[in-house]
Specification:
Blueprint: H1 9-15, H2 42-50, H3 57-65, H4 68-80, H5 86-109, H6 112-159, H7 163-171, H8 175-192, E1 199-201, E2 222-224, E3 245-247, E4 268-270, E5 291-293, H9 306-309, E6 315-317, E7 338-340, E8 361-363, E9 386-388, E10 409-411, H10 422-425, H11 429-453, H12 463-490, H13 500-503
Parallel strand pairs: 1-2, 2-3, 3-4, 4-5, 5-6, 6-7, 7-8, 8-9, 9-10
Helix pairs in contact: 4-6, 5-6, 11-12
Function: Leucine-rich repeat protein that likely mediates protein interactions, possibly in the context of signal transduction.
Protein name: Putative Leucine-rich repeat-containing protein
Pfam families: LRR_1, LRR_8
Length: about 500
Protein backbone atom coordinates (compact mmCIF):
# COMPACT_ATOMS: atom_id res chain seq x y z
CA UNK A 1 0.00 0.00 0.00
CA UNK A 2 3.04 2.25 0.17
CA UNK A 3 3.09 5.01 -2.46
CA UNK A 4 5.27 4.53 -5.51
CA UNK A 5 8.50 6.46 -4.79
CA UNK A 6 8.84 7.43 -8.44
CA UNK A 7 5.29 8.66 -8.72
CA UNK A 8 5.07 10.25 -5.24
CA UNK A 9 8.72 10.84 -4.26
CA UNK A 10 8.18 13.39 -1.49
CA UNK A 11 5.29 11.51 0.11
CA UNK A 12 7.22 8.25 0.03
CA UNK A 13 10.24 9.94 1.60
CA UNK A 14 8.20 11.22 4.54
CA UNK A 15 6.20 8.03 5.13
CA UNK A 16 9.25 5.78 5.22
CA UNK A 17 10.69 7.91 8.05
CA UNK A 18 7.62 7.82 10.25
CA UNK A 19 7.97 4.86 12.60
CA UNK A 20 4.53 5.11 14.19
CA UNK A 21 1.18 5.31 12.42
CA UNK A 22 -0.73 8.48 13.02
CA UNK A 23 0.20 12.11 13.41
CA UNK A 24 3.63 12.47 14.98
CA UNK A 25 4.25 14.90 17.76
CA UNK A 26 6.33 17.96 16.95
CA UNK A 27 9.82 17.34 18.28
CA UNK A 28 13.08 19.00 17.56
CA UNK A 29 15.66 17.24 19.69
CA UNK A 30 14.52 13.70 20.49
CA UNK A 31 12.83 12.30 17.39
CA UNK A 32 11.37 9.06 18.81
CA UNK A 33 8.67 8.82 16.16
CA UNK A 34 10.73 9.93 13.19
CA UNK A 35 13.94 8.52 11.78
CA UNK A 36 15.72 11.36 10.01
CA UNK A 37 19.05 9.53 10.00
CA UNK A 38 17.76 6.81 7.67
CA UNK A 39 20.02 6.41 4.68
CA UNK A 40 18.36 7.61 1.46
CA UNK A 41 17.60 5.09 -1.23
CA UNK A 42 18.76 5.52 -4.81
CA UNK A 43 15.34 6.96 -5.68
CA UNK A 44 15.62 9.54 -2.87
CA UNK A 45 19.07 10.87 -3.72
CA UNK A 46 17.76 13.02 -6.59
CA UNK A 47 14.92 14.29 -4.38
CA UNK A 48 17.27 15.34 -1.58
CA UNK A 49 19.48 17.06 -4.11
CA UNK A 50 16.53 19.16 -5.27
CA UNK A 51 15.19 19.70 -1.73
CA UNK A 52 18.25 19.79 0.56
CA UNK A 53 16.32 20.95 3.66
CA UNK A 54 14.04 17.90 3.89
CA UNK A 55 15.87 16.64 6.98
CA UNK A 56 15.26 19.84 8.95
CA UNK A 57 13.32 18.59 12.05
CA UNK A 58 10.71 21.36 12.21
CA UNK A 59 10.05 21.25 8.51
CA UNK A 60 9.80 17.47 8.54
CA UNK A 61 7.37 17.50 11.48
CA UNK A 62 5.13 19.93 9.61
CA UNK A 63 5.14 17.69 6.58
CA UNK A 64 4.53 14.53 8.60
CA UNK A 65 1.60 16.11 10.40
CA UNK A 66 0.05 17.15 7.10
CA UNK A 67 -0.24 13.57 5.86
CA UNK A 68 -1.76 11.89 8.91
CA UNK A 69 -4.81 11.04 6.78
CA UNK A 70 -2.60 9.11 4.36
CA UNK A 71 -0.98 7.09 7.14
CA UNK A 72 -4.38 6.25 8.62
CA UNK A 73 -5.88 5.22 5.28
CA UNK A 74 -2.82 3.15 4.47
CA UNK A 75 -3.24 1.29 7.76
CA UNK A 76 -6.90 0.52 6.98
CA UNK A 77 -6.14 -0.72 3.47
CA UNK A 78 -3.31 -2.89 4.75
CA UNK A 79 -5.87 -4.61 6.96
CA UNK A 80 -8.46 -4.96 4.18
CA UNK A 81 -6.06 -6.32 1.58
CA UNK A 82 -4.61 -5.44 -1.81
CA UNK A 83 -6.62 -3.92 -4.64
CA UNK A 84 -8.67 -6.38 -6.73
CA UNK A 85 -7.44 -6.83 -10.29
CA UNK A 86 -9.34 -5.24 -13.15
CA UNK A 87 -10.70 -8.55 -14.43
CA UNK A 88 -12.28 -9.31 -11.05
CA UNK A 89 -13.93 -5.90 -10.93
CA UNK A 90 -15.32 -6.26 -14.45
CA UNK A 91 -16.66 -9.70 -13.60
CA UNK A 92 -18.22 -8.43 -10.36
CA UNK A 93 -20.05 -5.64 -12.16
CA UNK A 94 -21.43 -7.89 -14.87
CA UNK A 95 -22.35 -10.56 -12.30
CA UNK A 96 -24.28 -8.02 -10.21
CA UNK A 97 -26.32 -7.12 -13.28
CA UNK A 98 -27.11 -10.81 -13.80
CA UNK A 99 -28.07 -11.30 -10.16
CA UNK A 100 -30.31 -8.24 -10.16
CA UNK A 101 -32.11 -9.59 -13.21
CA UNK A 102 -32.39 -12.99 -11.55
CA UNK A 103 -33.76 -11.37 -8.41
CA UNK A 104 -36.56 -9.76 -10.38
CA UNK A 105 -37.45 -13.15 -11.86
CA UNK A 106 -37.41 -14.68 -8.39
CA UNK A 107 -39.80 -12.02 -7.14
CA UNK A 108 -42.22 -12.91 -9.91
CA UNK A 109 -41.95 -16.63 -9.23
CA UNK A 110 -41.72 -16.19 -5.41
CA UNK A 111 -38.66 -18.44 -5.11
CA UNK A 112 -37.20 -17.51 -1.73
CA UNK A 113 -34.26 -19.94 -1.64
CA UNK A 114 -32.72 -18.56 -4.82
CA UNK A 115 -33.14 -15.00 -3.61
CA UNK A 116 -31.27 -15.71 -0.36
CA UNK A 117 -28.29 -17.26 -2.12
CA UNK A 118 -28.25 -14.38 -4.61
CA UNK A 119 -28.25 -11.84 -1.77
CA UNK A 120 -25.21 -13.46 -0.16
CA UNK A 121 -23.30 -13.47 -3.43
CA UNK A 122 -24.39 -9.88 -4.12
CA UNK A 123 -22.99 -8.74 -0.77
CA UNK A 124 -19.63 -10.28 -1.54
CA UNK A 125 -19.49 -8.70 -4.99
CA UNK A 126 -20.46 -5.28 -3.68
CA UNK A 127 -17.83 -5.53 -0.97
CA UNK A 128 -15.27 -6.21 -3.70
CA UNK A 129 -16.38 -3.08 -5.59
CA UNK A 130 -16.25 -1.03 -2.39
CA UNK A 131 -12.69 -2.19 -1.75
CA UNK A 132 -11.73 -1.14 -5.27
CA UNK A 133 -13.37 2.27 -4.71
CA UNK A 134 -11.39 2.72 -1.52
CA UNK A 135 -8.14 1.98 -3.31
CA UNK A 136 -9.10 4.42 -6.07
CA UNK A 137 -9.84 7.12 -3.48
CA UNK A 138 -6.50 6.32 -1.84
CA UNK A 139 -4.70 7.07 -5.11
CA UNK A 140 -6.43 10.45 -5.25
CA UNK A 141 -5.44 11.06 -1.64
CA UNK A 142 -1.80 10.28 -2.45
CA UNK A 143 -1.81 12.77 -5.30
CA UNK A 144 -3.29 15.51 -3.11
CA UNK A 145 -0.83 14.73 -0.30
CA UNK A 146 2.15 14.98 -2.66
CA UNK A 147 0.97 18.40 -3.83
CA UNK A 148 0.40 19.42 -0.20
CA UNK A 149 3.96 18.50 0.77
CA UNK A 150 5.44 20.38 -2.17
CA UNK A 151 3.50 23.46 -1.04
CA UNK A 152 4.69 23.13 2.56
CA UNK A 153 8.30 22.85 1.50
CA UNK A 154 8.01 25.95 -0.68
CA UNK A 155 6.39 27.99 2.07
CA UNK A 156 9.00 27.01 4.65
CA UNK A 157 11.81 27.97 2.34
CA UNK A 158 10.31 31.42 1.90
CA UNK A 159 9.90 31.96 5.64
CA UNK A 160 13.53 30.99 6.19
CA UNK A 161 14.58 33.53 3.57
CA UNK A 162 16.09 30.94 1.29
CA UNK A 163 14.65 32.54 -1.82
CA UNK A 164 18.08 33.79 -2.84
CA UNK A 165 19.55 30.32 -2.54
CA UNK A 166 16.74 28.89 -4.69
CA UNK A 167 17.30 31.63 -7.26
CA UNK A 168 21.01 30.84 -7.40
CA UNK A 169 20.18 27.21 -7.85
CA UNK A 170 17.94 28.00 -10.81
CA UNK A 171 20.58 30.26 -12.36
CA UNK A 172 23.15 27.47 -12.14
CA UNK A 173 21.01 25.24 -14.36
CA UNK A 174 22.15 24.28 -17.88
CA UNK A 175 21.29 26.24 -21.00
CA UNK A 176 18.63 23.76 -22.05
CA UNK A 177 16.58 24.42 -18.90
CA UNK A 178 16.86 28.18 -19.29
CA UNK A 179 15.83 27.90 -22.94
CA UNK A 180 12.93 25.73 -21.93
CA UNK A 181 11.63 28.20 -19.41
CA UNK A 182 11.87 30.97 -21.97
CA UNK A 183 9.88 28.94 -24.50
CA UNK A 184 7.11 28.24 -22.00
CA UNK A 185 7.02 31.85 -20.84
CA UNK A 186 6.81 33.06 -24.43
CA UNK A 187 3.78 30.86 -25.13
CA UNK A 188 2.03 32.02 -21.95
CA UNK A 189 2.82 35.68 -22.64
CA UNK A 190 1.45 35.42 -26.17
CA UNK A 191 -1.75 33.93 -24.79
CA UNK A 192 -2.07 36.68 -22.16
CA UNK A 193 -1.69 39.31 -24.86
CA UNK A 194 -4.62 37.82 -26.73
CA UNK A 195 -2.61 36.32 -29.57
CA UNK A 196 -4.10 33.27 -31.29
CA UNK A 197 -1.62 30.54 -30.39
CA UNK A 198 -2.64 27.48 -32.40
CA UNK A 199 0.47 25.29 -32.64
CA UNK A 200 3.15 24.80 -29.97
CA UNK A 201 6.15 22.49 -30.27
CA UNK A 202 8.02 21.99 -26.99
CA UNK A 203 9.50 18.61 -27.88
CA UNK A 204 12.98 17.74 -26.61
CA UNK A 205 13.20 20.69 -24.21
CA UNK A 206 13.95 18.71 -21.00
CA UNK A 207 10.67 19.96 -19.62
CA UNK A 208 10.00 18.64 -16.11
CA UNK A 209 6.65 20.26 -15.36
CA UNK A 210 3.87 21.80 -17.41
CA UNK A 211 2.47 24.93 -15.69
CA UNK A 212 -1.22 24.90 -14.74
CA UNK A 213 -1.57 28.16 -16.66
CA UNK A 214 -0.99 26.26 -19.89
CA UNK A 215 -4.62 25.22 -19.71
CA UNK A 216 -5.62 28.82 -20.45
CA UNK A 217 -4.18 28.79 -23.96
CA UNK A 218 -7.66 28.01 -25.24
CA UNK A 219 -6.85 28.70 -28.91
CA UNK A 220 -4.34 25.84 -29.07
CA UNK A 221 -5.02 23.13 -31.67
CA UNK A 222 -1.69 21.26 -31.82
CA UNK A 223 0.57 20.63 -28.81
CA UNK A 224 3.78 18.59 -28.98
CA UNK A 225 5.34 17.78 -25.60
CA UNK A 226 7.22 14.66 -26.70
CA UNK A 227 10.76 13.74 -25.61
CA UNK A 228 10.70 15.59 -22.30
CA UNK A 229 10.84 14.48 -18.65
CA UNK A 230 7.24 15.12 -17.66
CA UNK A 231 5.93 12.96 -14.81
CA UNK A 232 2.44 14.39 -14.72
CA UNK A 233 0.03 16.47 -16.76
CA UNK A 234 -2.05 19.08 -14.89
CA UNK A 235 -5.84 18.77 -14.76
CA UNK A 236 -6.01 22.23 -16.31
CA UNK A 237 -5.26 20.67 -19.70
CA UNK A 238 -9.03 20.30 -19.95
CA UNK A 239 -9.07 24.02 -20.74
CA UNK A 240 -7.58 23.31 -24.18
CA UNK A 241 -11.06 22.72 -25.54
CA UNK A 242 -10.03 23.24 -29.18
CA UNK A 243 -7.06 20.88 -29.05
CA UNK A 244 -7.00 18.39 -31.93
CA UNK A 245 -3.51 16.87 -31.69
CA UNK A 246 -1.60 16.07 -28.50
CA UNK A 247 1.74 14.27 -28.30
CA UNK A 248 3.06 13.21 -24.90
CA UNK A 249 5.33 10.50 -26.28
CA UNK A 250 8.63 9.59 -24.62
CA UNK A 251 8.14 11.18 -21.23
CA UNK A 252 7.96 9.62 -17.74
CA UNK A 253 4.21 9.71 -17.22
CA UNK A 254 2.71 7.21 -14.78
CA UNK A 255 -0.87 8.28 -15.41
CA UNK A 256 -3.04 10.69 -17.34
CA UNK A 257 -5.47 13.13 -15.70
CA UNK A 258 -9.15 12.20 -15.75
CA UNK A 259 -9.81 15.66 -17.17
CA UNK A 260 -8.38 14.49 -20.51
CA UNK A 261 -11.87 13.20 -21.24
CA UNK A 262 -13.02 16.81 -21.64
CA UNK A 263 -10.92 17.21 -24.79
CA UNK A 264 -13.88 16.38 -27.00
CA UNK A 265 -12.23 17.75 -30.17
CA UNK A 266 -9.06 15.70 -29.78
CA UNK A 267 -8.39 13.61 -32.90
CA UNK A 268 -4.81 12.37 -32.42
CA UNK A 269 -3.35 11.33 -29.06
CA UNK A 270 0.15 9.89 -28.69
CA UNK A 271 1.15 8.71 -25.20
CA UNK A 272 3.65 6.07 -26.34
CA UNK A 273 6.96 5.51 -24.58
CA UNK A 274 5.83 6.34 -21.04
CA UNK A 275 5.23 4.31 -17.85
CA UNK A 276 1.45 4.15 -17.93
CA UNK A 277 -0.16 1.15 -16.24
CA UNK A 278 -3.68 2.19 -17.21
CA UNK A 279 -5.62 4.65 -19.31
CA UNK A 280 -8.27 6.70 -17.51
CA UNK A 281 -11.86 5.58 -18.09
CA UNK A 282 -12.62 9.16 -19.11
CA UNK A 283 -10.61 8.70 -22.32
CA UNK A 284 -13.75 7.10 -23.72
CA UNK A 285 -15.29 10.58 -23.85
CA UNK A 286 -12.70 11.80 -26.38
CA UNK A 287 -15.23 10.85 -29.04
CA UNK A 288 -13.46 12.65 -31.87
CA UNK A 289 -10.38 10.44 -31.52
CA UNK A 290 -9.23 9.00 -34.83
CA UNK A 291 -5.79 7.78 -33.77
CA UNK A 292 -4.59 6.60 -30.35
CA UNK A 293 -1.02 5.43 -29.75
CA UNK A 294 -0.40 3.97 -26.29
CA UNK A 295 2.42 1.61 -27.24
CA UNK A 296 5.63 1.12 -25.23
CA UNK A 297 3.97 1.39 -21.81
CA UNK A 298 3.07 -0.96 -18.96
CA UNK A 299 -0.66 -1.15 -19.64
CA UNK A 300 -2.28 -4.15 -17.96
CA UNK A 301 -5.80 -3.52 -19.26
CA UNK A 302 -7.90 -1.10 -21.28
CA UNK A 303 -11.00 0.76 -20.00
CA UNK A 304 -13.98 -1.60 -19.97
CA UNK A 305 -16.31 0.59 -22.03
CA UNK A 306 -13.63 2.10 -24.24
CA UNK A 307 -15.06 0.72 -27.47
CA UNK A 308 -18.64 1.80 -26.85
CA UNK A 309 -17.91 5.51 -27.29
CA UNK A 310 -14.80 5.75 -29.48
CA UNK A 311 -16.81 5.06 -32.60
CA UNK A 312 -14.58 7.25 -34.81
CA UNK A 313 -11.29 5.59 -33.87
CA UNK A 314 -9.47 4.26 -36.94
CA UNK A 315 -6.00 3.48 -35.57
CA UNK A 316 -5.27 1.85 -32.21
CA UNK A 317 -1.62 1.07 -31.41
CA UNK A 318 -1.16 -0.71 -28.08
CA UNK A 319 1.84 -2.94 -28.75
CA UNK A 320 4.63 -3.60 -26.24
CA UNK A 321 2.45 -3.54 -23.14
CA UNK A 322 1.27 -6.15 -20.63
CA UNK A 323 -2.28 -6.63 -21.87
CA UNK A 324 -3.77 -10.04 -21.09
CA UNK A 325 -7.08 -9.47 -22.81
CA UNK A 326 -9.04 -6.94 -24.83
CA UNK A 327 -12.36 -5.66 -23.48
CA UNK A 328 -15.40 -6.99 -25.33
CA UNK A 329 -16.41 -3.40 -26.07
CA UNK A 330 -13.51 -3.14 -28.52
CA UNK A 331 -15.70 -5.11 -30.93
CA UNK A 332 -17.91 -2.01 -31.22
CA UNK A 333 -15.15 0.12 -32.78
CA UNK A 334 -16.73 -0.21 -36.21
CA UNK A 335 -14.46 2.46 -37.76
CA UNK A 336 -11.25 0.69 -36.70
CA UNK A 337 -8.91 0.02 -39.63
CA UNK A 338 -5.54 -0.59 -37.97
CA UNK A 339 -5.03 -2.53 -34.74
CA UNK A 340 -1.57 -3.43 -33.44
CA UNK A 341 -1.38 -5.52 -30.26
CA UNK A 342 1.94 -7.31 -30.79
CA UNK A 343 4.26 -8.08 -27.87
CA UNK A 344 1.61 -8.36 -25.18
CA UNK A 345 0.32 -11.28 -23.12
CA UNK A 346 -3.02 -11.83 -24.86
CA UNK A 347 -4.80 -15.07 -23.96
CA UNK A 348 -7.19 -14.77 -26.87
CA UNK A 349 -9.69 -12.46 -28.56
CA UNK A 350 -13.32 -11.63 -27.74
CA UNK A 351 -15.61 -14.08 -29.55
CA UNK A 352 -17.35 -11.16 -31.34
CA UNK A 353 -14.05 -9.87 -32.73
CA UNK A 354 -15.39 -10.39 -36.26
CA UNK A 355 -17.65 -7.36 -35.83
CA UNK A 356 -14.63 -5.19 -36.73
CA UNK A 357 -15.54 -5.53 -40.40
CA UNK A 358 -13.61 -2.42 -41.49
CA UNK A 359 -10.32 -3.69 -40.09
CA UNK A 360 -7.58 -3.73 -42.75
CA UNK A 361 -4.34 -4.19 -40.76
CA UNK A 362 -4.07 -6.47 -37.72
CA UNK A 363 -0.91 -7.40 -35.83
CA UNK A 364 -1.31 -10.04 -33.12
CA UNK A 365 2.26 -11.31 -33.27
CA UNK A 366 4.53 -12.19 -30.35
CA UNK A 367 1.94 -12.96 -27.71
CA UNK A 368 3.80 -16.27 -27.52
CA UNK A 369 2.39 -19.13 -25.42
CA UNK A 370 -0.66 -17.14 -24.37
CA UNK A 371 -2.21 -16.86 -27.85
CA UNK A 372 -3.37 -20.34 -28.88
CA UNK A 373 -6.47 -19.87 -31.05
CA UNK A 374 -8.69 -17.44 -32.92
CA UNK A 375 -12.49 -17.14 -32.60
CA UNK A 376 -14.73 -18.52 -35.36
CA UNK A 377 -16.01 -14.99 -36.00
CA UNK A 378 -12.52 -14.13 -37.31
CA UNK A 379 -13.72 -14.89 -40.84
CA UNK A 380 -16.07 -11.91 -40.68
CA UNK A 381 -13.09 -9.54 -41.03
CA UNK A 382 -13.83 -9.40 -44.75
CA UNK A 383 -11.78 -6.24 -45.41
CA UNK A 384 -8.62 -7.53 -43.75
CA UNK A 385 -5.57 -7.04 -45.99
CA UNK A 386 -2.57 -7.53 -43.69
CA UNK A 387 -2.40 -10.04 -40.83
CA UNK A 388 0.57 -10.93 -38.62
CA UNK A 389 0.11 -13.94 -36.32
CA UNK A 390 3.79 -14.85 -35.98
CA UNK A 391 5.39 -16.03 -32.72
CA UNK A 392 2.28 -17.47 -31.10
CA UNK A 393 1.05 -20.98 -30.27
CA UNK A 394 -1.76 -21.34 -32.81
CA UNK A 395 -2.33 -24.95 -33.96
CA UNK A 396 -5.42 -24.59 -36.15
CA UNK A 397 -6.88 -21.64 -38.03
CA UNK A 398 -10.66 -21.30 -37.72
CA UNK A 399 -12.70 -22.76 -40.61
CA UNK A 400 -14.12 -19.29 -41.28
CA UNK A 401 -10.60 -18.13 -42.28
CA UNK A 402 -11.55 -18.98 -45.86
CA UNK A 403 -13.76 -15.89 -46.02
CA UNK A 404 -10.74 -13.52 -45.80
CA UNK A 405 -10.58 -13.11 -49.57
CA UNK A 406 -9.03 -9.61 -49.44
CA UNK A 407 -6.01 -10.84 -47.49
CA UNK A 408 -2.78 -10.08 -49.38
CA UNK A 409 -0.14 -10.24 -46.63
CA UNK A 410 -0.03 -13.02 -44.03
CA UNK A 411 2.69 -13.96 -41.53
CA UNK A 412 2.25 -17.26 -39.67
CA UNK A 413 5.91 -17.85 -38.78
CA UNK A 414 6.82 -19.55 -35.50
CA UNK A 415 3.46 -21.22 -34.85
CA UNK A 416 2.97 -25.00 -34.33
CA UNK A 417 0.39 -25.03 -37.15
CA UNK A 418 -1.26 -28.28 -38.13
CA UNK A 419 -4.06 -26.79 -40.22
CA UNK A 420 -3.17 -25.49 -42.72
CA UNK A 421 0.00 -27.56 -43.27
CA UNK A 422 3.40 -25.94 -43.71
CA UNK A 423 3.56 -26.49 -47.49
CA UNK A 424 0.36 -24.46 -47.90
CA UNK A 425 1.53 -21.72 -45.54
CA UNK A 426 4.75 -21.33 -47.50
CA UNK A 427 2.77 -20.48 -50.64
CA UNK A 428 1.36 -17.30 -49.12
CA UNK A 429 -1.91 -15.67 -48.13
CA UNK A 430 -3.98 -16.67 -51.17
CA UNK A 431 -3.04 -20.33 -50.81
CA UNK A 432 -3.97 -20.37 -47.11
CA UNK A 433 -7.34 -18.69 -47.72
CA UNK A 434 -8.11 -21.09 -50.58
CA UNK A 435 -7.12 -24.12 -48.49
CA UNK A 436 -9.33 -23.07 -45.57
CA UNK A 437 -12.21 -22.28 -47.95
CA UNK A 438 -11.98 -25.76 -49.51
CA UNK A 439 -11.67 -27.33 -46.09
CA UNK A 440 -14.90 -25.67 -44.98
CA UNK A 441 -16.73 -26.93 -48.08
CA UNK A 442 -15.37 -30.44 -47.53
CA UNK A 443 -16.54 -30.42 -43.93
CA UNK A 444 -20.05 -29.37 -44.98
CA UNK A 445 -20.24 -32.00 -47.71
CA UNK A 446 -18.93 -34.76 -45.44
CA UNK A 447 -21.45 -33.94 -42.75
CA UNK A 448 -24.25 -34.02 -45.29
CA UNK A 449 -23.03 -37.34 -46.66
CA UNK A 450 -22.96 -38.80 -43.14
CA UNK A 451 -26.55 -37.70 -42.66
CA UNK A 452 -27.56 -39.42 -45.88
CA UNK A 453 -25.82 -42.64 -44.91
CA UNK A 454 -27.51 -42.66 -41.52
CA UNK A 455 -30.90 -42.11 -43.11
CA UNK A 456 -31.35 -38.70 -41.52
CA UNK A 457 -32.10 -36.99 -44.82
CA UNK A 458 -35.73 -35.83 -44.90
CA UNK A 459 -37.96 -36.79 -47.81
CA UNK A 460 -39.02 -33.79 -49.88
CA UNK A 461 -41.83 -33.86 -52.47
CA UNK A 462 -40.54 -31.60 -55.24
CA UNK A 463 -37.09 -30.70 -56.55
CA UNK A 464 -37.23 -27.10 -55.41
CA UNK A 465 -38.01 -28.06 -51.84
CA UNK A 466 -35.26 -30.65 -51.97
CA UNK A 467 -32.75 -28.01 -53.06
CA UNK A 468 -33.83 -25.64 -50.30
CA UNK A 469 -33.62 -28.44 -47.74
CA UNK A 470 -30.13 -29.32 -48.92
CA UNK A 471 -28.88 -25.76 -48.51
CA UNK A 472 -30.67 -25.52 -45.16
CA UNK A 473 -28.86 -28.66 -44.02
CA UNK A 474 -25.51 -27.23 -45.12
CA UNK A 475 -26.15 -23.91 -43.42
CA UNK A 476 -27.26 -25.61 -40.22
CA UNK A 477 -24.16 -27.78 -40.28
CA UNK A 478 -21.90 -24.79 -40.79
CA UNK A 479 -23.54 -22.73 -38.05
CA UNK A 480 -23.45 -25.70 -35.68
CA UNK A 481 -19.74 -26.05 -36.32
CA UNK A 482 -19.15 -22.39 -35.62
CA UNK A 483 -21.26 -22.47 -32.44
CA UNK A 484 -19.36 -25.53 -31.30
CA UNK A 485 -16.08 -23.73 -31.90
CA UNK A 486 -17.25 -20.68 -29.99
CA UNK A 487 -18.50 -22.88 -27.14
CA UNK A 488 -15.10 -24.50 -26.90
CA UNK A 489 -13.48 -21.06 -26.92
CA UNK A 490 -15.77 -19.90 -24.14
CA UNK A 491 -14.58 -22.81 -22.07
CA UNK A 492 -17.83 -24.83 -21.84
CA UNK A 493 -17.45 -27.38 -19.09
CA UNK A 494 -14.06 -26.31 -17.86
CA UNK A 495 -13.49 -22.64 -17.30
CA UNK A 496 -10.22 -21.06 -18.29
CA UNK A 497 -8.93 -18.57 -15.72
CA UNK A 498 -6.97 -16.82 -18.46
CA UNK A 499 -9.97 -15.47 -20.35
CA UNK A 500 -11.79 -13.08 -17.95
CA UNK A 501 -13.41 -11.10 -20.74
CA UNK A 502 -15.19 -14.23 -21.91
CA UNK A 503 -16.76 -14.59 -18.48
CA UNK A 504 -18.35 -11.19 -19.05
CA UNK A 505 -20.46 -12.72 -21.80
CA UNK A 506 -21.92 -15.43 -19.59
Amino acid sequence: MDPNPKKFPLLSFVLTRINSIGKPKAKTDDQSDIDLEQQPTSDEVELITRMPHLNHPKLFNSMAGAIADVAKTRSILNALGSRPDHESIDFARSRIVELEASEKESELSEKCDGRKSNEMEMQGLRALLQLDDMHEAYQTLLKEAEERLVGIYGEKMETQENASMQKGKEESGDDGEVGLNQEVVKVLNDAREGKSVQEVDLSGQNLIILPEEFGRVSTLRVLNLSRNQLQMIPDSIAGLERLEELSLAKNSLYNLPDSIGLLTNLKILDVSGNKLTRLPDSISYCRSLVELNASYNDLEYLPTNMGLKLSNLQTLLIYLNKLRYLPTSICEMRSLRHLDVHFNELHGLPHNFGKLTNLEILNLSSNFSDMTELPQSFGDLINLKQLDLSNNQIHILPDSFGFLRNLVKLNLDQNPLVIPPADVVNKGANAVVEFMDNRMIEIIEKEEQDRLEKGEEEEVDDGESNTNASWLTRSTSLVSGWVSGVSDYLGTGQKSPRDPYLEEQR
